[in-house]
Amino acid sequence: MSQTHSAKPFQSVFNDSVVIDASTPSQKRALSYATTIEMLFNQVMNSKMPADRIIGQYFREHKKHGSKDRRVIRESLFGLFRWWGWLSQLQGEQPHVTWFRQLSACAALEQHAWQDITQAWNTLATWPTTEAHPTNCDSINDKLALFMSLSGLTACQISDLLPSWFWQTCPVVPADKLAVVEAMTSRPPIWARVQSIKTSAAIAQLNKAGVDAIASQYFADAISLGHKSINLNEIDTYKQGHLEIQDLASQVIGQICQPQADQTWWDACSGAGGKTLQLRSLMLQQNTQSVGTITASDIRNKPLEELNKRAKRAGFNNISVAPWKSDALPVNAGTFDGVLVDAPCSCTGTWRRNPDMRWLDDASALTDKPALQLDILARSAAAVKSGGQLVYATCSLSPSENEHVVEAFLAQTNEFELVPVTHPFTGESCNMLTIWPQLADSDGMFVAKMRRK
Protein backbone atom coordinates (compact mmCIF):
# COMPACT_ATOMS: atom_id res chain seq x y z
CA MET A 1 0.00 0.00 0.00
CA SER A 2 1.47 3.38 -0.96
CA GLN A 3 2.40 6.03 1.58
CA THR A 4 -0.61 8.17 0.74
CA HIS A 5 -2.87 5.27 1.63
CA SER A 6 -1.25 4.45 4.97
CA ALA A 7 -3.25 3.06 7.88
CA LYS A 8 -2.87 6.35 9.83
CA PRO A 9 -3.65 9.07 7.28
CA PHE A 10 -3.97 11.90 9.82
CA GLN A 11 -3.61 12.73 13.48
CA SER A 12 -6.38 13.56 15.92
CA VAL A 13 -8.32 16.54 14.61
CA PHE A 14 -9.25 18.13 17.91
CA ASN A 15 -6.85 18.22 20.83
CA ASP A 16 -5.67 20.63 23.50
CA SER A 17 -3.44 22.46 21.05
CA VAL A 18 -6.19 23.13 18.49
CA VAL A 19 -8.99 25.51 19.41
CA ILE A 20 -11.74 25.92 16.84
CA ASP A 21 -14.46 28.49 17.40
CA ALA A 22 -18.01 27.42 16.60
CA SER A 23 -20.35 30.38 16.73
CA THR A 24 -23.51 28.90 15.16
CA PRO A 25 -25.52 25.72 15.79
CA SER A 26 -24.56 24.47 12.31
CA GLN A 27 -20.87 24.92 13.05
CA LYS A 28 -21.22 23.11 16.36
CA ARG A 29 -22.96 20.19 14.64
CA ALA A 30 -20.35 20.23 11.88
CA LEU A 31 -17.54 19.99 14.45
CA SER A 32 -19.33 17.21 16.30
CA TYR A 33 -19.86 15.25 13.09
CA ALA A 34 -16.23 15.80 12.08
CA THR A 35 -14.98 14.40 15.38
CA THR A 36 -17.20 11.31 15.14
CA ILE A 37 -16.42 10.61 11.49
CA GLU A 38 -12.67 10.95 12.12
CA MET A 39 -12.87 8.52 15.04
CA LEU A 40 -14.75 5.97 12.93
CA PHE A 41 -12.46 6.42 9.92
CA ASN A 42 -9.33 5.87 12.00
CA GLN A 43 -10.91 2.89 13.72
CA VAL A 44 -11.61 1.24 10.37
CA MET A 45 -8.14 1.97 8.98
CA ASN A 46 -6.30 0.87 12.12
CA SER A 47 -8.37 -2.23 12.91
CA LYS A 48 -8.89 -3.20 9.24
CA MET A 49 -12.40 -4.25 10.20
CA PRO A 50 -15.19 -3.63 7.65
CA ALA A 51 -16.63 -0.14 7.87
CA ASP A 52 -20.24 -1.33 7.94
CA ARG A 53 -19.45 -3.45 11.00
CA ILE A 54 -17.65 -0.60 12.76
CA ILE A 55 -20.40 1.92 12.13
CA GLY A 56 -23.14 -0.58 12.96
CA GLN A 57 -21.57 -1.21 16.35
CA TYR A 58 -21.16 2.54 16.92
CA PHE A 59 -24.84 3.28 16.24
CA ARG A 60 -25.93 0.41 18.51
CA GLU A 61 -23.87 1.91 21.31
CA HIS A 62 -24.95 5.53 20.65
CA LYS A 63 -28.73 5.60 20.46
CA LYS A 64 -28.75 9.42 20.74
CA HIS A 65 -28.26 9.88 17.00
CA GLY A 66 -31.40 10.63 15.02
CA SER A 67 -31.99 9.62 11.42
CA LYS A 68 -30.31 12.75 10.00
CA ASP A 69 -27.28 12.31 12.24
CA ARG A 70 -26.92 8.71 11.17
CA ARG A 71 -27.23 9.63 7.51
CA VAL A 72 -24.61 12.41 7.69
CA ILE A 73 -22.15 10.21 9.57
CA ARG A 74 -22.69 7.09 7.49
CA GLU A 75 -22.69 8.68 4.05
CA SER A 76 -19.72 10.90 4.86
CA LEU A 77 -17.73 7.93 6.15
CA PHE A 78 -18.37 5.77 3.10
CA GLY A 79 -17.85 8.76 0.81
CA LEU A 80 -14.38 9.26 2.28
CA PHE A 81 -13.41 5.72 1.34
CA ARG A 82 -15.00 6.10 -2.09
CA TRP A 83 -12.80 9.09 -2.94
CA TRP A 84 -9.80 8.32 -0.71
CA GLY A 85 -7.51 7.84 -3.71
CA TRP A 86 -7.82 11.59 -4.25
CA LEU A 87 -8.57 12.81 -0.74
CA SER A 88 -5.43 11.18 0.67
CA GLN A 89 -3.36 13.53 -1.52
CA LEU A 90 -4.72 16.64 0.22
CA GLN A 91 -2.47 18.60 2.56
CA GLY A 92 -3.13 21.48 4.96
CA GLU A 93 -1.09 23.74 7.19
CA GLN A 94 -2.10 21.59 10.16
CA PRO A 95 -3.62 18.08 10.47
CA HIS A 96 -7.06 19.42 11.38
CA VAL A 97 -7.07 21.64 8.27
CA THR A 98 -6.23 18.61 6.11
CA TRP A 99 -9.15 16.73 7.68
CA PHE A 100 -11.65 19.51 7.03
CA ARG A 101 -10.44 19.74 3.44
CA GLN A 102 -11.01 16.02 3.06
CA LEU A 103 -14.52 16.30 4.51
CA SER A 104 -15.31 19.37 2.41
CA ALA A 105 -14.05 17.82 -0.84
CA CYS A 106 -15.88 14.57 -0.11
CA ALA A 107 -19.15 16.44 0.44
CA ALA A 108 -18.67 18.27 -2.87
CA LEU A 109 -17.88 15.08 -4.80
CA GLU A 110 -20.80 13.22 -3.24
CA GLN A 111 -23.09 16.26 -3.68
CA HIS A 112 -24.38 15.88 -0.13
CA ALA A 113 -27.62 17.64 0.66
CA TRP A 114 -26.78 18.96 4.13
CA GLN A 115 -25.60 22.39 2.98
CA ASP A 116 -25.29 23.94 6.46
CA ILE A 117 -22.83 21.26 7.58
CA THR A 118 -20.96 21.31 4.28
CA GLN A 119 -20.61 25.10 4.41
CA ALA A 120 -19.13 24.90 7.91
CA TRP A 121 -16.60 22.32 6.73
CA ASN A 122 -15.76 24.53 3.74
CA THR A 123 -15.03 27.45 6.05
CA LEU A 124 -12.82 25.37 8.33
CA ALA A 125 -10.99 23.88 5.32
CA THR A 126 -9.43 27.30 4.45
CA TRP A 127 -8.97 26.28 0.83
CA PRO A 128 -5.96 27.84 -0.93
CA THR A 129 -8.19 29.52 -3.51
CA THR A 130 -11.56 31.24 -3.28
CA GLU A 131 -12.25 31.14 -7.00
CA ALA A 132 -15.54 29.73 -8.24
CA HIS A 133 -15.44 25.98 -8.75
CA PRO A 134 -17.25 23.85 -11.36
CA THR A 135 -20.84 23.10 -10.37
CA ASN A 136 -21.52 20.38 -12.93
CA CYS A 137 -20.53 17.17 -11.14
CA ASP A 138 -22.21 14.34 -13.02
CA SER A 139 -19.39 12.36 -14.66
CA ILE A 140 -16.13 11.13 -13.21
CA ASN A 141 -14.28 13.65 -15.41
CA ASP A 142 -16.45 16.43 -13.97
CA LYS A 143 -15.60 15.27 -10.46
CA LEU A 144 -11.88 15.23 -11.24
CA ALA A 145 -12.11 18.80 -12.55
CA LEU A 146 -13.98 19.85 -9.40
CA PHE A 147 -11.45 18.20 -7.10
CA MET A 148 -8.45 19.72 -8.85
CA SER A 149 -10.12 23.14 -8.81
CA LEU A 150 -10.78 22.87 -5.06
CA SER A 151 -7.41 21.49 -4.10
CA GLY A 152 -5.08 23.14 -6.57
CA LEU A 153 -3.56 19.70 -7.22
CA THR A 154 -2.70 19.01 -10.85
CA ALA A 155 -1.33 15.46 -10.86
CA CYS A 156 -4.49 13.59 -9.80
CA GLN A 157 -5.68 10.83 -12.10
CA ILE A 158 -8.92 8.93 -12.38
CA SER A 159 -7.03 5.66 -11.89
CA ASP A 160 -5.96 6.86 -8.39
CA LEU A 161 -9.48 6.03 -7.14
CA LEU A 162 -8.57 2.32 -7.14
CA PRO A 163 -5.30 1.03 -5.64
CA SER A 164 -2.44 0.32 -8.01
CA TRP A 165 -2.52 -3.40 -7.22
CA PHE A 166 -6.08 -3.59 -8.56
CA TRP A 167 -4.96 -2.44 -12.00
CA GLN A 168 -2.09 -4.93 -11.90
CA THR A 169 -4.20 -7.93 -10.91
CA CYS A 170 -7.58 -7.18 -12.49
CA PRO A 171 -6.79 -6.35 -16.14
CA VAL A 172 -9.23 -3.85 -17.59
CA VAL A 173 -9.54 -3.15 -21.31
CA PRO A 174 -8.32 0.46 -21.77
CA ALA A 175 -11.59 1.46 -23.40
CA ASP A 176 -13.47 0.28 -20.27
CA LYS A 177 -11.20 1.87 -17.66
CA LEU A 178 -13.25 5.05 -17.28
CA ALA A 179 -16.52 3.11 -16.98
CA VAL A 180 -15.04 0.78 -14.36
CA VAL A 181 -13.92 3.70 -12.16
CA GLU A 182 -17.24 5.48 -12.70
CA ALA A 183 -19.08 2.38 -11.49
CA MET A 184 -16.73 1.80 -8.54
CA THR A 185 -17.26 5.36 -7.28
CA SER A 186 -21.05 5.22 -7.45
CA ARG A 187 -23.52 3.32 -5.31
CA PRO A 188 -25.51 0.53 -6.97
CA PRO A 189 -29.20 0.23 -6.18
CA ILE A 190 -30.50 -2.30 -3.70
CA TRP A 191 -31.29 -5.32 -5.87
CA ALA A 192 -33.82 -7.90 -4.75
CA ARG A 193 -35.42 -11.08 -5.98
CA VAL A 194 -39.13 -11.92 -5.88
CA GLN A 195 -40.22 -15.44 -4.96
CA SER A 196 -43.53 -17.31 -4.73
CA ILE A 197 -45.60 -14.41 -6.13
CA LYS A 198 -45.69 -12.51 -9.40
CA THR A 199 -43.11 -9.77 -9.80
CA SER A 200 -45.80 -7.27 -10.78
CA ALA A 201 -47.70 -8.00 -7.55
CA ALA A 202 -44.54 -7.55 -5.47
CA ILE A 203 -43.75 -4.23 -7.15
CA ALA A 204 -47.29 -2.98 -6.52
CA GLN A 205 -47.06 -3.93 -2.84
CA LEU A 206 -43.65 -2.29 -2.46
CA ASN A 207 -44.67 0.89 -4.24
CA LYS A 208 -47.70 1.13 -1.96
CA ALA A 209 -45.31 0.82 1.01
CA GLY A 210 -43.25 3.73 -0.33
CA VAL A 211 -40.40 1.68 -1.83
CA ASP A 212 -39.14 2.70 -5.28
CA ALA A 213 -39.34 -0.79 -6.78
CA ILE A 214 -38.96 -1.30 -10.52
CA ALA A 215 -38.53 -4.47 -12.60
CA SER A 216 -35.18 -5.52 -14.05
CA GLN A 217 -34.96 -5.84 -17.81
CA TYR A 218 -32.81 -8.95 -17.48
CA PHE A 219 -34.48 -11.44 -15.12
CA ALA A 220 -38.21 -11.89 -14.59
CA ASP A 221 -37.89 -12.14 -10.79
CA ALA A 222 -35.29 -9.37 -10.27
CA ILE A 223 -36.24 -5.89 -9.08
CA SER A 224 -34.41 -2.72 -8.08
CA LEU A 225 -35.40 -1.11 -4.78
CA GLY A 226 -33.60 2.18 -5.48
CA HIS A 227 -30.94 3.77 -3.29
CA LYS A 228 -32.87 4.73 -0.15
CA SER A 229 -32.31 2.83 3.08
CA ILE A 230 -35.13 0.38 3.77
CA ASN A 231 -36.20 -1.21 7.05
CA LEU A 232 -37.16 -4.62 5.69
CA ASN A 233 -38.80 -5.64 8.93
CA GLU A 234 -41.49 -3.05 8.23
CA ILE A 235 -42.18 -4.38 4.71
CA ASP A 236 -44.93 -7.01 4.52
CA THR A 237 -43.64 -8.40 1.22
CA TYR A 238 -40.37 -9.24 2.95
CA LYS A 239 -41.91 -10.52 6.18
CA GLN A 240 -44.13 -12.87 4.15
CA GLY A 241 -41.07 -14.41 2.47
CA HIS A 242 -41.75 -12.99 -1.00
CA LEU A 243 -38.62 -10.84 -1.17
CA GLU A 244 -34.91 -11.56 -0.76
CA ILE A 245 -32.13 -8.98 -1.05
CA GLN A 246 -29.67 -10.24 -3.66
CA ASP A 247 -27.48 -8.22 -6.01
CA LEU A 248 -28.24 -8.57 -9.70
CA ALA A 249 -24.75 -9.94 -10.43
CA SER A 250 -25.25 -12.57 -7.73
CA GLN A 251 -28.54 -13.54 -9.34
CA VAL A 252 -26.64 -14.33 -12.54
CA ILE A 253 -25.17 -17.40 -10.84
CA GLY A 254 -28.52 -19.07 -10.20
CA GLN A 255 -29.61 -18.23 -13.74
CA ILE A 256 -26.48 -19.93 -15.09
CA CYS A 257 -27.10 -22.98 -12.89
CA GLN A 258 -30.62 -23.35 -14.37
CA PRO A 259 -31.74 -26.01 -11.86
CA GLN A 260 -34.59 -28.17 -13.08
CA ALA A 261 -37.67 -28.82 -10.93
CA ASP A 262 -36.79 -32.45 -10.19
CA GLN A 263 -33.04 -32.14 -9.72
CA THR A 264 -30.80 -32.50 -6.67
CA TRP A 265 -28.33 -29.66 -6.04
CA TRP A 266 -25.57 -29.02 -3.54
CA ASP A 267 -24.59 -25.46 -2.59
CA ALA A 268 -21.12 -26.28 -1.29
CA CYS A 269 -20.23 -22.80 0.11
CA SER A 270 -23.68 -21.50 0.91
CA GLY A 271 -23.04 -18.88 3.57
CA ALA A 272 -26.46 -17.62 4.71
CA GLY A 273 -28.07 -19.23 1.69
CA GLY A 274 -28.95 -16.46 -0.75
CA LYS A 275 -28.15 -18.64 -3.75
CA THR A 276 -29.66 -21.74 -2.11
CA LEU A 277 -32.98 -19.89 -1.88
CA GLN A 278 -32.61 -18.66 -5.45
CA LEU A 279 -32.05 -22.22 -6.73
CA ARG A 280 -35.14 -23.44 -4.90
CA SER A 281 -37.20 -20.50 -6.16
CA LEU A 282 -36.16 -21.26 -9.75
CA MET A 283 -37.24 -24.89 -9.27
CA LEU A 284 -40.63 -23.82 -7.92
CA GLN A 285 -41.13 -21.37 -10.78
CA GLN A 286 -41.10 -24.35 -13.14
CA ASN A 287 -43.35 -26.51 -10.99
CA THR A 288 -45.00 -25.46 -7.73
CA GLN A 289 -44.98 -29.14 -6.74
CA SER A 290 -41.26 -29.46 -7.40
CA VAL A 291 -39.65 -32.52 -5.80
CA GLY A 292 -36.14 -31.17 -6.36
CA THR A 293 -33.87 -30.86 -3.34
CA ILE A 294 -31.01 -28.60 -2.30
CA THR A 295 -28.37 -29.31 0.33
CA ALA A 296 -26.46 -26.32 1.72
CA SER A 297 -23.03 -26.57 3.34
CA ASP A 298 -20.69 -24.14 5.06
CA ILE A 299 -17.88 -24.38 7.59
CA ARG A 300 -19.80 -21.99 9.89
CA ASN A 301 -22.99 -22.97 11.70
CA LYS A 302 -24.38 -19.46 12.21
CA PRO A 303 -24.96 -18.74 8.50
CA LEU A 304 -26.66 -22.12 8.11
CA GLU A 305 -28.99 -21.23 10.99
CA GLU A 306 -29.79 -17.99 9.17
CA LEU A 307 -30.53 -19.99 6.00
CA ASN A 308 -33.00 -22.15 7.90
CA LYS A 309 -34.80 -19.01 9.13
CA ARG A 310 -34.94 -17.55 5.62
CA ALA A 311 -36.19 -20.83 4.13
CA LYS A 312 -38.91 -21.02 6.80
CA ARG A 313 -39.96 -17.43 6.12
CA ALA A 314 -40.16 -18.21 2.39
CA GLY A 315 -42.14 -21.39 3.02
CA PHE A 316 -39.58 -23.41 1.04
CA ASN A 317 -39.36 -27.15 1.58
CA ASN A 318 -36.74 -29.65 0.40
CA ILE A 319 -33.80 -27.57 1.67
CA SER A 320 -31.42 -29.24 4.13
CA VAL A 321 -28.06 -28.32 5.63
CA ALA A 322 -24.87 -30.37 5.93
CA PRO A 323 -22.02 -28.47 7.62
CA TRP A 324 -18.42 -29.03 6.56
CA LYS A 325 -16.87 -30.64 9.67
CA SER A 326 -13.60 -31.83 8.14
CA ASP A 327 -11.89 -32.16 4.76
CA ALA A 328 -14.21 -35.05 4.00
CA LEU A 329 -17.30 -34.35 1.88
CA PRO A 330 -20.34 -33.57 4.04
CA VAL A 331 -22.52 -35.16 1.33
CA ASN A 332 -22.45 -38.38 -0.67
CA ALA A 333 -20.11 -38.48 -3.66
CA GLY A 334 -21.46 -38.80 -7.18
CA THR A 335 -25.10 -38.14 -6.25
CA PHE A 336 -25.93 -34.58 -7.36
CA ASP A 337 -27.30 -33.26 -10.64
CA GLY A 338 -25.61 -29.96 -9.88
CA VAL A 339 -22.99 -28.59 -7.51
CA LEU A 340 -22.45 -24.87 -6.96
CA VAL A 341 -19.10 -23.73 -5.55
CA ASP A 342 -19.36 -20.04 -4.68
CA ALA A 343 -15.81 -19.88 -3.37
CA PRO A 344 -14.35 -17.50 -0.78
CA CYS A 345 -12.42 -14.74 -2.56
CA SER A 346 -10.98 -11.22 -2.39
CA CYS A 347 -14.45 -9.71 -3.05
CA THR A 348 -13.07 -7.06 -5.42
CA GLY A 349 -16.40 -7.26 -7.25
CA THR A 350 -18.21 -5.86 -4.18
CA TRP A 351 -16.09 -2.72 -3.80
CA ARG A 352 -19.02 -0.53 -4.88
CA ARG A 353 -20.86 -1.48 -1.69
CA ASN A 354 -17.72 -1.76 0.44
CA PRO A 355 -15.39 1.04 -0.71
CA ASP A 356 -13.29 0.73 2.45
CA MET A 357 -12.05 -2.70 1.40
CA ARG A 358 -10.02 -1.29 -1.49
CA TRP A 359 -7.79 0.53 1.03
CA LEU A 360 -7.82 -2.11 3.79
CA ASP A 361 -6.68 -4.95 1.54
CA ASP A 362 -3.54 -5.31 -0.53
CA ALA A 363 -2.49 -7.69 -3.30
CA SER A 364 -2.24 -10.56 -0.81
CA ALA A 365 -6.05 -10.59 -0.73
CA LEU A 366 -5.74 -12.18 -4.18
CA THR A 367 -2.59 -14.24 -3.88
CA ASP A 368 -3.61 -16.15 -0.74
CA LYS A 369 -6.89 -17.49 -2.16
CA PRO A 370 -6.37 -19.48 -5.42
CA ALA A 371 -4.87 -22.58 -3.74
CA LEU A 372 -7.83 -22.76 -1.35
CA GLN A 373 -10.31 -22.12 -4.17
CA LEU A 374 -8.83 -24.92 -6.28
CA ASP A 375 -8.88 -27.29 -3.32
CA ILE A 376 -12.56 -26.55 -2.55
CA LEU A 377 -13.52 -26.90 -6.23
CA ALA A 378 -11.68 -30.21 -6.61
CA ARG A 379 -13.19 -31.68 -3.43
CA SER A 380 -16.71 -30.51 -4.27
CA ALA A 381 -16.51 -31.87 -7.81
CA ALA A 382 -16.57 -35.40 -6.38
CA ALA A 383 -20.24 -34.90 -5.52
CA VAL A 384 -21.31 -34.44 -9.16
CA LYS A 385 -22.94 -37.44 -10.83
CA SER A 386 -22.16 -38.50 -14.38
CA GLY A 387 -23.55 -35.90 -16.78
CA GLY A 388 -24.12 -33.48 -13.90
CA GLN A 389 -23.13 -29.83 -13.69
CA LEU A 390 -20.38 -28.12 -11.70
CA VAL A 391 -20.64 -24.33 -11.38
CA TYR A 392 -17.75 -22.28 -10.00
CA ALA A 393 -18.34 -18.67 -8.97
CA THR A 394 -16.67 -15.80 -7.09
CA CYS A 395 -17.36 -12.12 -6.51
CA SER A 396 -13.82 -11.34 -7.68
CA LEU A 397 -12.69 -9.54 -10.83
CA SER A 398 -9.21 -11.09 -10.87
CA PRO A 399 -8.33 -13.87 -13.34
CA SER A 400 -6.04 -15.41 -10.68
CA GLU A 401 -9.15 -16.30 -8.63
CA ASN A 402 -11.36 -17.02 -11.62
CA GLU A 403 -10.20 -18.30 -15.01
CA HIS A 404 -6.87 -19.51 -13.67
CA VAL A 405 -8.54 -21.63 -10.98
CA VAL A 406 -10.92 -23.21 -13.48
CA GLU A 407 -8.08 -23.85 -15.91
CA ALA A 408 -5.96 -25.44 -13.16
CA PHE A 409 -8.89 -27.66 -12.17
CA LEU A 410 -9.52 -28.81 -15.75
CA ALA A 411 -5.80 -29.45 -16.18
CA GLN A 412 -5.75 -31.90 -13.27
CA THR A 413 -8.83 -33.89 -14.35
CA ASN A 414 -10.19 -35.14 -17.65
CA GLU A 415 -13.63 -35.85 -16.18
CA PHE A 416 -15.05 -32.35 -16.69
CA GLU A 417 -15.50 -30.02 -19.64
CA LEU A 418 -16.55 -26.38 -19.93
CA VAL A 419 -20.11 -25.60 -20.99
CA PRO A 420 -20.48 -22.34 -22.98
CA VAL A 421 -22.78 -19.79 -21.34
CA THR A 422 -24.58 -16.69 -22.59
CA HIS A 423 -23.76 -13.36 -21.01
CA PRO A 424 -27.14 -12.22 -19.62
CA PHE A 425 -26.40 -8.51 -20.11
CA THR A 426 -24.73 -8.54 -23.55
CA GLY A 427 -26.08 -11.72 -25.17
CA GLU A 428 -22.57 -12.89 -26.08
CA SER A 429 -21.58 -16.55 -25.84
CA CYS A 430 -18.48 -17.26 -23.76
CA ASN A 431 -16.71 -20.13 -22.03
CA MET A 432 -16.34 -18.25 -18.75
CA LEU A 433 -18.29 -15.20 -17.68
CA THR A 434 -17.15 -12.06 -15.84
CA ILE A 435 -19.82 -9.54 -14.88
CA TRP A 436 -18.29 -6.06 -14.67
CA PRO A 437 -20.10 -3.57 -12.40
CA GLN A 438 -20.79 -1.01 -15.13
CA LEU A 439 -22.72 -3.41 -17.37
CA ALA A 440 -26.01 -3.48 -15.47
CA ASP A 441 -25.47 -1.26 -12.40
CA SER A 442 -24.55 -4.19 -10.17
CA ASP A 443 -21.65 -5.72 -8.29
CA GLY A 444 -18.92 -7.67 -10.10
CA MET A 445 -19.09 -11.45 -10.41
CA PHE A 446 -17.47 -14.44 -12.15
CA VAL A 447 -19.04 -17.76 -13.09
CA ALA A 448 -18.00 -20.83 -15.08
CA LYS A 449 -20.12 -23.87 -15.86
CA MET A 450 -18.73 -27.37 -16.32
CA ARG A 451 -20.18 -30.80 -16.97
CA ARG A 452 -18.96 -34.22 -15.82
CA LYS A 453 -18.43 -36.20 -19.01
UniProtKB/TrEMBL annotation:
Q: Where does S-adenosyl-L-methionine bind?
A: D298, D342
**Which PROSITE patterns does the record cross-reference, listed alphabetically?**
SAM_MT_RSMB_NOP (PS51686)
Determine the domain of life of the protein's source: Bacteria
SUPFAM superfamilies with a match to the protein in the record: S-adenosyl-L-methionine-dependent methyltransferases
Q: Which residues form the SAM-dependent MTase RsmB/NOP-type domain?
A: 180-453
Q: Which UniProt keywords apply?
A: Methyltransferase, RNA-binding, S-adenosyl-L-methionine, Transferase
Name the protein family: Belongs to the class I-like SAM-binding methyltransferase superfamily. RsmB/NOP family.
- The protein, known as: tRNA/rRNA cytosine-C5-methylase RsmB
